[in-house]
Write a structure and sequence with these properties.
alpha/beta, single chain, six-stranded parallel sheet
Length: about 250
Amino acid sequence: MKSPTLVFVHGWGQSAQTWHAQMDYFGERHHVLAVNLPGHGGAPDAALETWEDALLAKLPSEPVVFVGWSLGGMLGQRLATTHAARLAGLVLLSTTPRFRLRPDWEYGCTDEVFERFRDSLKTDAPRLLDRFFALMLQGDALDRKQYLGIVRTAIDRRHPASPDGLHCGLQLLDELDLRTDLPGISLPALVVHGAADTVTPVGAAHYLAAQLPAATLRIMQAGHAPHLTQPLMFNELLEEWCQNNISTQLR
């Protein structure tokens, strides 16, 4: 029986390049695909309301294991609600059902920080992205050499995210609230989060795992990007979960 394709979807301001360690690890043995969201990694811009269709168009016709990081994970939750038949499993890495803080949601980004992001995007997007990347790795004990090595291999400098792509992605982070959808997602789900995540509080992972009917929760001693800072541990965790939880097991 053919094993399902592992589809990796990056976060805001990043690109498919962020998954280089996963493509190397899984690529020799499994079907893998890392996609670029609209306006990211050289992909063409798309109207915000067509992002979901643009993502669906890149998926194979058979059900896939969707691995979404941060914003990619939010889009994965959305697809698991609207197009569940296209997915065989859902892996949510360092993500949340709602990015922004609300009176009834304590695991979100404050208005002050979010508006600072929005303002910086208008005035100096490249500097904002560099600062955001540093923030994502802040929870990991990296020396300068390790940090620069990750920057060199994980960021696609040739194809920076477009202004429209960044704006649309930020708008999704602003507007998406997927909390009420979670109990209806019956897919096998793996929730992975860094205990020291400074972008998305780890409480969001505990919430996801509690609300998703078929979820497995794994907390790593990492920041917002465990797939970059501890790739082997993340890869082995993902592979073990796939072998134990996906009906058409990866071979």
